[in-house]
Amino acid sequence: MEHDYPFLRACRRRPVDRVPVWLMRQAGRYMPEYRALREKHSILELCGTPELAAEVTLQPINRFDLDAAIIFADILLPLEGLGVGFHFAAGEGPVIEKPVRTPEDADAVRPFDPTVGLGHVLEAIKIVRRELEGRVPLIGFAGAPFTLASYMIEGGSSKNYLLMKSFMYQHPEAWDRLMRVIREVTRDYLAAQIEAGAQAIQLFDSWVGCLSPEDYREFVLPHSAWVLEGLAGYDVPRIHFGTNTATLLEAMKQAGGEVIGVDWRLPIDRAREIIGPDFAVQGNLDPVTLMAPRELLVERVKRVLERADAKNGYIFNLGHGVLPPTPMENVDTVIETVHGYGRR
Length: 344
Ligand code: CP3
Fold this sequence. Notes:
Largest sheet: 7 strands, parallel
Strand content: 5-15%
Distance between the termini: 27 Å
Bound molecules: coproporphyrinogen III
């Protein structure tokens, strides 16, 4: 039940007996058991095979004392169903085969039924829930409409989002139509994950920090708010995450969710001041801190905990995902330090 899980309690700003911790990208290349599976299967095969996706989801849970699992998938998976083909190129990250560059391209992007097109993710969620046997809650997730649109238009990762912003400014109506298609699929996909057993959801707006607050409010907020509002009827906490969002936190909380995710660029006490008492907060350790010597790492983890008012509606996490060269003993150090906080 919810009242037994520190993670779900913290999302609801209820008292916790220990500060919960999980790590974005907690399943991945820093783990030898993940690398072993990747020798045999591509990332898309892992995501596309429910038994394998379930196995990878559980790898960090079996090794570390984490307070939540996150389903192994990728934010880009819905692109295929939307008619935008992509693959992962070794060493380069995602490559969109025919990026969206004109209003006509945007209007060719069509909604689909994620219970069909992404049924394998839903199946993986069901397997994980069975195999977890209530050990920790399971988080489902999706990319936010803006971050998905940025991949569709840029064609991959980007430095300054020139093409994406140009499209937004030059074709505001086509942008709006595109965002409406993506948001519908995103809402339906997250709802289906909850129906399949996800006990919390996270909306990843990873790259939204490239926008000014004004552009965020005009071009993005209504669509993210629509997704989050569409899930309000479920009794499941919603985490709203982005990076580089120091100037956007005010607007992001208006878009909704119970929990706001923050990166490391803003001290967490300052972030909490901006976000206010009506939201829980998740984050804020710089992922590269896990490359530091143990004493420095412990000091930095404690600093975040102290500044965060950590026993009060706070979930420890990194400000972004675990990086591939991260030593596993440092993951243990982070988790032990968090769990030791406020205990004698
Ligand atoms: O957190 C977890 O453990 C769940 C798994 C997860 C993956 N991707 C698996 C993955 C999650 C939550 C994601 C989200 C995701 N994917 C985001 C949002 C979070 C963030 O980091 O901002 C984004 C932007 C993507 C897009 C993406 N997927 C990129 C840019 C890349 C290539 C870069 C890289 O890290 O290699 C991926 C591939 C990917 N997705 C990997 C993993 C474990 C690495 C691929 C590999 O094993 O070779």
